[in-house]
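Re: [ENG-882] Designed sequences occasionally contain unexpected residues at chain ends

Forwarding the minimal case from QA. Structure tokens:
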């Protein structure tokens, strides 16, 4: 963490976040970049979200809306302050340079080359602030044949093979139910940023962190690449059936619910056989080991399906639990809202938005014993903090800020 900025801070709050005192400039859009910057903010960093005046970041136009404010924008932008700044104007670019001189981290996810065209190439950034960490997020990386190609999460899923291995075996390739590539890229970008900050503690120098959606997607392919190269075997769609352990799939109950159960090893299968009232299945040559169960999975799942359909959901889950078989009902989002465990873990928090009122959203995924994540700022309105940021970071006067507003720079 930058010691020069820690000295500028007031006396540290009790239980301040682990990144308290860190200054981050976020010029990113959509998901991966904003999510990375939000995670840094969740850990206590002072994150300044820079947005174009009047229209704001692209996702502000994405529904659903509450009182005209985008919920899509909210879930990726808490713990930030918003500065509206026209980066197409020379004065706006100069203000960005001034901010970067004070910053520890810059997060951006423009198409590679865009930052350079704006006058912020790597040499310029090093001259402005040799300690600056520049976290660059893109579809295909800052170099390579595809580096200038735009990319979104679903394109990353498509080109990486993730879509090919997702869905029903007899169906068509299917995208995941959420933006798994964007989320994972945002997390890799956060990890990379933290690693670069730690390196800076040793050598005093900033560096570029290059993170790509395509690279992140490939990291989730499990054994697909070595299987293809070493065995000539293409990984394809398995539906909800596990690729490596059997039985592990989703089964219907008498109540019309779906329950997923997992037998990761022979001991769990013995528990399942006992729960089914058929302990001899565990000794059957067709099912006695994971290898043979994988070979005979279709007929085994028929037996399990007939059993699960004969039981109500609660009875099924109780019986599986009593016999040591990991299982759960496929939950709807409405189930999550009332979940006692999630409430206990603080995984659904309720914030007070300046326009939308009380808005529930996901909680903090990492628990620090002595420096907990906290909701310090709800997702900001466009330009909500422009004056205070320019005053705090650049010591600008009210008159100077008013002039910028009159000139439509902020």
């Amino acid at each position: 963490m930058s010691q020069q900025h820690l000295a500028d801070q007031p006396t540290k709050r009790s239980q301040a976040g682990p990144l308290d005192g860190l200054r981050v400039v976020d010029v990113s859009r959509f998901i991966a970049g904003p999510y990375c910057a939000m995670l840094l903010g969740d850990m206590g960093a002072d994150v300044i979200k820079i947005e174009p005046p009047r229209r704001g970041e692209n996702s502000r136009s994405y529904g659903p809306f509450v009182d005209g404010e985008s919920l899509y924008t909210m879930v990726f932008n808490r713990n930030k302050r918003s500065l509206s700044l026209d980066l197409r104007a020379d004065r706006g670019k100069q203000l960005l340079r001034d901010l970067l001189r004070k910053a520890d981290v810059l997060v951006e996810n423009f198409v590679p080359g865009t930052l350079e065209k704006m006058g912020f190439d790597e040499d310029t950034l090093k001259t402005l602030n040799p300690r600056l960490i520049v976290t660059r997020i893109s579809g295909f990386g800052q170099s390579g044949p595809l580096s200038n190609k735009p990319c979104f999460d679903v394109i990353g899923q498509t080109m990486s093979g993730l879509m090919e291995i997702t869905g029903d075996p007899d169906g068509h390739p299917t995208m995941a139910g959420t933006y798994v590539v964007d989320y994972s890229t945002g997390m890799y970008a956060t990890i990379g940023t933290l690693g670069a900050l730690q390196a800076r503690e040793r050598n005093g120098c900033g560096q570029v962190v290059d993170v790509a959606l395509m690279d992140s997607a490939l990291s989730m392919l499990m054994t697909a690449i070595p299987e293809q190269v070493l065995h000539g075997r293409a990984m394809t769609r398995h539906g909800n059936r596990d690729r490596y352990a059997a039985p592990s799939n989703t089964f219907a109950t008498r109540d019309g619910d779906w329950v997923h159960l997992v037998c990761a090893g022979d001991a769990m299968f013995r528990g399942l056989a006992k729960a089914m009232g058929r302990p001899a299945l565990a000794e059957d040559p067709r099912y006695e080991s994971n290898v043979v169960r994988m070979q005979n999975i279709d007929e085994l799942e028929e037996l399990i399906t007939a059993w699960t359909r004969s039981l109500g959901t609660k009875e099924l889950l109780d019986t599986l639990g009593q016999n040591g078989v990991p299982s759960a009902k496929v939950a709807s989002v409405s189930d999550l809202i009332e979940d006692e465990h999630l409430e206990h873990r603080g995984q659904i928090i309720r914030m007070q938005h300046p326009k939308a009122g009380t808005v529930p959203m996901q909680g903090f995924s990492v628990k620090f014993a002595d420096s907990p994540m906290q909701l310090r700022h709800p997702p900001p309105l466009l330009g909500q903090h422009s004056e205070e940021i320019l005053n705090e970071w650049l010591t600008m006067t009210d008159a100077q800020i008013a002039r910028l507003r009159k000139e439509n720079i902020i």
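QA comment: On inspection the terminal residues look reasonable. DSSP finds 18 helices and 13 strands in the chain. Proposing we downgrade this to a documentation issue.
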